[in-house]
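Onboarding guide, step 5: your first structure request.
Type a short instruction followed by the sequence, for example:

Predict the 3D structure of this protein.
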Amino acid sequence: MKEEKGGENKKNGHTTEKPREVKTTSGVETSVHMPRDRNGKFEPVIVPKRSRIIEDFSDVSIPLYSKGNSLDDIRELLKEVYKVKISKTYISELISSVREKVKVWQERKLKPIYAIAYIDGLHCTVKIEGEAKKVAVYVVIGVDLEGKKEILSMEISDGSESATFWTEVLYDLKNRGVEDILYIAMDGLSGLKEAVEVVFPFTKTQRCIVHIVRNLYKLCPQKLKKEVIAEFKKIYTSETLKEAELYYKAFLKK
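The system replies with C-alpha coordinates like these:
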Protein backbone atom coordinates (compact mmCIF):
# COMPACT_ATOMS: atom_id res chain seq x y z
CA MET A 1 0.00 0.00 0.00
CA LYS A 2 1.46 3.35 -1.08
CA GLU A 3 0.94 6.61 0.73
CA GLU A 4 -0.45 9.54 -1.24
CA LYS A 5 2.30 12.08 -1.80
CA GLY A 6 1.36 15.54 -0.64
CA GLY A 7 -1.91 14.23 0.74
CA GLU A 8 -3.31 13.66 4.18
CA ASN A 9 -4.10 9.99 3.70
CA LYS A 10 -1.54 7.68 5.31
CA LYS A 11 -1.13 4.13 6.49
CA ASN A 12 -3.00 3.36 9.65
CA GLY A 13 -1.92 -0.12 10.72
CA HIS A 14 -4.11 -3.13 9.95
CA THR A 15 -7.85 -3.79 10.15
CA THR A 16 -7.38 -6.31 12.98
CA GLU A 17 -4.54 -7.38 15.18
CA LYS A 18 -5.31 -11.03 14.39
CA PRO A 19 -4.43 -12.10 10.80
CA ARG A 20 -7.23 -13.32 8.56
CA GLU A 21 -7.22 -16.99 7.57
CA VAL A 22 -7.87 -17.52 3.85
CA LYS A 23 -7.64 -20.43 1.42
CA THR A 24 -5.73 -20.40 -1.84
CA THR A 25 -6.64 -22.16 -5.10
CA SER A 26 -4.31 -25.00 -4.15
CA GLY A 27 -6.26 -25.51 -0.93
CA VAL A 28 -3.52 -24.21 1.33
CA GLU A 29 -4.63 -22.15 4.30
CA THR A 30 -2.65 -18.99 4.84
CA SER A 31 -2.76 -15.86 6.97
CA VAL A 32 -2.89 -12.29 5.69
CA HIS A 33 -2.76 -8.92 7.43
CA MET A 34 -5.11 -6.44 5.77
CA PRO A 35 -3.63 -2.90 5.77
CA ARG A 36 -5.84 0.13 6.23
CA ASP A 37 -5.57 3.86 5.68
CA ARG A 38 -6.86 6.80 7.66
CA ASN A 39 -9.51 7.76 5.09
CA GLY A 40 -10.75 4.19 4.57
CA LYS A 41 -10.19 4.35 0.79
CA PHE A 42 -7.87 1.39 0.42
CA GLU A 43 -9.39 -1.48 -1.58
CA PRO A 44 -7.30 -4.70 -1.60
CA VAL A 45 -7.18 -6.45 -4.98
CA ILE A 46 -5.63 -9.86 -4.40
CA VAL A 47 -7.73 -10.63 -1.31
CA PRO A 48 -10.90 -8.50 -1.40
CA LYS A 49 -12.42 -7.19 1.79
CA ARG A 50 -14.34 -9.79 3.84
CA SER A 51 -13.09 -12.54 1.51
CA ARG A 52 -12.10 -15.90 2.94
CA ILE A 53 -11.20 -17.54 -0.38
CA ILE A 54 -8.71 -16.00 -2.79
CA GLU A 55 -10.09 -17.87 -5.82
CA ASP A 56 -13.86 -18.40 -6.06
CA PHE A 57 -13.54 -21.71 -7.96
CA SER A 58 -16.25 -20.58 -10.39
CA ASP A 59 -14.07 -21.53 -13.37
CA VAL A 60 -14.25 -25.13 -12.10
CA SER A 61 -17.67 -25.34 -10.47
CA ILE A 62 -19.76 -23.82 -13.27
CA PRO A 63 -18.47 -26.07 -16.12
CA LEU A 64 -18.95 -29.11 -13.90
CA TYR A 65 -22.52 -28.09 -13.08
CA SER A 66 -23.28 -27.42 -16.76
CA LYS A 67 -22.29 -31.02 -17.52
CA GLY A 68 -24.82 -32.39 -15.07
CA ASN A 69 -22.75 -32.82 -11.90
CA SER A 70 -24.61 -32.33 -8.63
CA LEU A 71 -23.52 -29.90 -5.92
CA ASP A 72 -22.28 -32.86 -3.86
CA ASP A 73 -20.22 -34.12 -6.82
CA ILE A 74 -18.62 -30.69 -7.28
CA ARG A 75 -17.94 -30.35 -3.56
CA GLU A 76 -16.21 -33.74 -3.43
CA LEU A 77 -14.13 -32.98 -6.53
CA LEU A 78 -12.92 -29.67 -5.09
CA LYS A 79 -12.02 -31.47 -1.89
CA GLU A 80 -10.11 -34.19 -3.74
CA VAL A 81 -8.29 -32.04 -6.30
CA TYR A 82 -7.79 -28.74 -4.47
CA LYS A 83 -7.76 -30.13 -0.91
CA VAL A 84 -10.25 -27.48 0.11
CA LYS A 85 -13.65 -27.79 1.79
CA ILE A 86 -16.30 -25.65 0.12
CA SER A 87 -19.90 -25.69 1.32
CA LYS A 88 -22.82 -26.60 -0.94
CA THR A 89 -24.31 -23.21 -0.14
CA TYR A 90 -21.24 -21.44 -1.51
CA ILE A 91 -21.28 -23.52 -4.71
CA SER A 92 -25.00 -22.87 -5.10
CA GLU A 93 -24.35 -19.13 -4.83
CA LEU A 94 -21.78 -19.38 -7.66
CA ILE A 95 -24.32 -21.15 -9.87
CA SER A 96 -27.04 -18.62 -9.01
CA SER A 97 -24.76 -15.73 -9.97
CA VAL A 98 -24.47 -17.24 -13.45
CA ARG A 99 -28.24 -17.64 -13.73
CA GLU A 100 -28.62 -13.94 -12.95
CA LYS A 101 -26.11 -13.03 -15.66
CA VAL A 102 -27.92 -15.27 -18.15
CA LYS A 103 -31.24 -13.59 -17.32
CA VAL A 104 -29.73 -10.13 -17.81
CA TRP A 105 -28.33 -11.25 -21.17
CA GLN A 106 -31.66 -12.75 -22.27
CA GLU A 107 -33.55 -9.56 -21.38
CA ARG A 108 -31.03 -7.05 -22.79
CA LYS A 109 -32.24 -4.40 -25.25
CA LEU A 110 -31.59 -5.02 -28.94
CA LYS A 111 -31.11 -2.79 -31.97
CA PRO A 112 -34.24 -1.61 -33.82
CA ILE A 113 -33.30 -3.01 -37.25
CA TYR A 114 -31.35 -6.07 -38.41
CA ALA A 115 -30.44 -6.79 -42.02
CA ILE A 116 -30.91 -10.52 -41.64
CA ALA A 117 -31.57 -13.06 -38.91
CA TYR A 118 -30.89 -16.77 -38.97
CA ILE A 119 -33.31 -18.83 -36.87
CA ASP A 120 -33.03 -22.53 -36.16
CA GLY A 121 -33.89 -25.11 -33.54
CA LEU A 122 -31.21 -27.40 -32.14
CA HIS A 123 -32.24 -30.71 -30.59
CA CYS A 124 -30.13 -32.05 -27.77
CA THR A 125 -30.20 -33.84 -24.43
CA VAL A 126 -29.40 -31.83 -21.31
CA LYS A 127 -29.41 -32.53 -17.60
CA ILE A 128 -31.91 -30.48 -15.61
CA GLU A 129 -31.81 -30.97 -11.85
CA GLY A 130 -29.90 -34.22 -12.39
CA GLU A 131 -32.42 -35.63 -14.90
CA ALA A 132 -31.62 -36.07 -18.61
CA LYS A 133 -34.20 -34.42 -20.86
CA LYS A 134 -34.57 -33.94 -24.59
CA VAL A 135 -35.10 -30.28 -25.39
CA ALA A 136 -35.23 -27.90 -28.32
CA VAL A 137 -32.91 -24.90 -28.20
CA TYR A 138 -34.28 -21.96 -30.19
CA VAL A 139 -31.39 -19.89 -31.55
CA VAL A 140 -31.60 -16.50 -33.28
CA ILE A 141 -28.46 -14.99 -34.83
CA GLY A 142 -28.79 -11.46 -36.19
CA VAL A 143 -26.65 -9.34 -38.49
CA ASP A 144 -27.06 -5.58 -38.03
CA LEU A 145 -26.85 -2.90 -40.73
CA GLU A 146 -23.09 -2.60 -40.18
CA GLY A 147 -22.55 -6.31 -40.79
CA LYS A 148 -21.92 -7.20 -37.14
CA LYS A 149 -23.20 -10.64 -36.16
CA GLU A 150 -24.51 -11.44 -32.68
CA ILE A 151 -26.68 -14.00 -30.92
CA LEU A 152 -29.99 -12.30 -30.23
CA SER A 153 -31.74 -15.08 -28.38
CA MET A 154 -31.37 -18.61 -27.01
CA GLU A 155 -34.40 -20.24 -25.43
CA ILE A 156 -35.00 -23.81 -24.28
CA SER A 157 -38.29 -25.68 -24.56
CA ASP A 158 -39.26 -29.25 -23.72
CA GLY A 159 -40.14 -31.53 -26.58
CA SER A 160 -39.75 -30.94 -30.30
CA GLU A 161 -39.43 -27.64 -32.17
CA SER A 162 -42.72 -25.87 -32.85
CA ALA A 163 -43.93 -22.77 -34.70
CA THR A 164 -45.99 -21.81 -31.64
CA PHE A 165 -42.90 -21.44 -29.47
CA TRP A 166 -41.11 -19.62 -32.29
CA THR A 167 -43.92 -17.06 -32.21
CA GLU A 168 -43.14 -16.42 -28.53
CA VAL A 169 -39.42 -16.07 -29.30
CA LEU A 170 -40.10 -13.56 -32.08
CA TYR A 171 -42.46 -11.53 -29.89
CA ASP A 172 -39.74 -11.45 -27.24
CA LEU A 173 -37.36 -9.91 -29.81
CA LYS A 174 -39.96 -7.27 -30.55
CA ASN A 175 -40.49 -6.51 -26.87
CA ARG A 176 -36.73 -6.05 -26.50
CA GLY A 177 -36.63 -3.32 -29.12
CA VAL A 178 -36.48 -5.01 -32.55
CA GLU A 179 -38.77 -3.11 -34.90
CA ASP A 180 -37.90 -4.78 -38.19
CA ILE A 181 -35.79 -7.56 -39.72
CA LEU A 182 -35.27 -7.27 -43.47
CA TYR A 183 -34.69 -10.97 -44.11
CA ILE A 184 -35.07 -14.13 -42.03
CA ALA A 185 -33.37 -17.35 -43.12
CA MET A 186 -34.99 -20.50 -41.73
CA ASP A 187 -35.81 -24.13 -42.35
CA GLY A 188 -39.09 -25.55 -43.61
CA LEU A 189 -40.75 -26.12 -40.23
CA SER A 190 -44.52 -26.19 -40.66
CA GLY A 191 -46.13 -22.89 -39.64
CA LEU A 192 -42.83 -21.04 -39.14
CA LYS A 193 -43.27 -18.75 -42.14
CA GLU A 194 -46.73 -17.78 -40.89
CA ALA A 195 -45.34 -17.12 -37.41
CA VAL A 196 -42.81 -14.67 -38.86
CA GLU A 197 -45.53 -12.92 -40.87
CA VAL A 198 -47.61 -12.42 -37.71
CA VAL A 199 -44.82 -10.77 -35.69
CA PHE A 200 -42.83 -9.09 -38.48
CA PRO A 201 -45.27 -8.68 -41.40
CA PHE A 202 -42.82 -6.78 -43.65
CA THR A 203 -39.95 -9.26 -43.25
CA LYS A 204 -39.01 -11.39 -46.25
CA THR A 205 -38.33 -15.05 -45.52
CA GLN A 206 -36.10 -17.48 -47.34
CA ARG A 207 -35.03 -21.08 -46.87
CA CYS A 208 -31.65 -21.56 -45.26
CA ILE A 209 -29.02 -22.68 -47.79
CA VAL A 210 -27.70 -25.34 -45.42
CA HIS A 211 -31.12 -27.00 -45.22
CA ILE A 212 -31.61 -26.79 -48.99
CA VAL A 213 -28.22 -28.45 -49.59
CA ARG A 214 -29.02 -31.19 -47.08
CA ASN A 215 -32.36 -31.95 -48.74
CA LEU A 216 -30.74 -31.88 -52.17
CA TYR A 217 -28.04 -34.26 -50.99
CA LYS A 218 -30.68 -36.74 -49.81
CA LEU A 219 -32.47 -36.70 -53.17
CA CYS A 220 -29.38 -37.24 -55.35
CA PRO A 221 -28.13 -40.66 -56.42
CA GLN A 222 -24.90 -41.58 -54.62
CA LYS A 223 -22.73 -41.29 -57.76
CA LEU A 224 -23.99 -37.77 -58.55
CA LYS A 225 -24.03 -36.23 -55.07
CA LYS A 226 -20.66 -34.44 -55.24
CA GLU A 227 -21.18 -33.18 -58.79
CA VAL A 228 -24.70 -31.87 -58.12
CA ILE A 229 -23.75 -30.14 -54.86
CA ALA A 230 -20.69 -28.54 -56.52
CA GLU A 231 -22.86 -27.14 -59.35
CA PHE A 232 -25.48 -25.90 -56.91
CA LYS A 233 -22.82 -24.17 -54.82
CA LYS A 234 -21.90 -21.99 -57.79
CA ILE A 235 -25.36 -20.39 -57.56
CA TYR A 236 -25.29 -19.19 -53.95
CA THR A 237 -21.61 -18.22 -54.00
CA SER A 238 -21.94 -16.01 -57.08
CA GLU A 239 -20.70 -12.44 -56.73
CA THR A 240 -23.52 -10.89 -58.77
CA LEU A 241 -27.21 -11.56 -59.34
CA LYS A 242 -26.66 -11.93 -63.10
CA GLU A 243 -23.98 -14.56 -62.55
CA ALA A 244 -26.22 -16.45 -60.12
CA GLU A 245 -29.08 -16.47 -62.66
CA LEU A 246 -26.79 -17.95 -65.31
CA TYR A 247 -25.63 -20.71 -62.99
CA TYR A 248 -29.23 -21.34 -61.93
CA LYS A 249 -30.39 -21.82 -65.54
CA ALA A 250 -27.45 -24.10 -66.24
CA PHE A 251 -28.25 -26.11 -63.12
CA LEU A 252 -31.86 -26.65 -64.19
CA LYS A 253 -30.77 -27.97 -67.61
CA LYS A 254 -28.60 -30.59 -65.94
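Each response can be followed by summary notes, for example: The longest strand covers residues 113-128.
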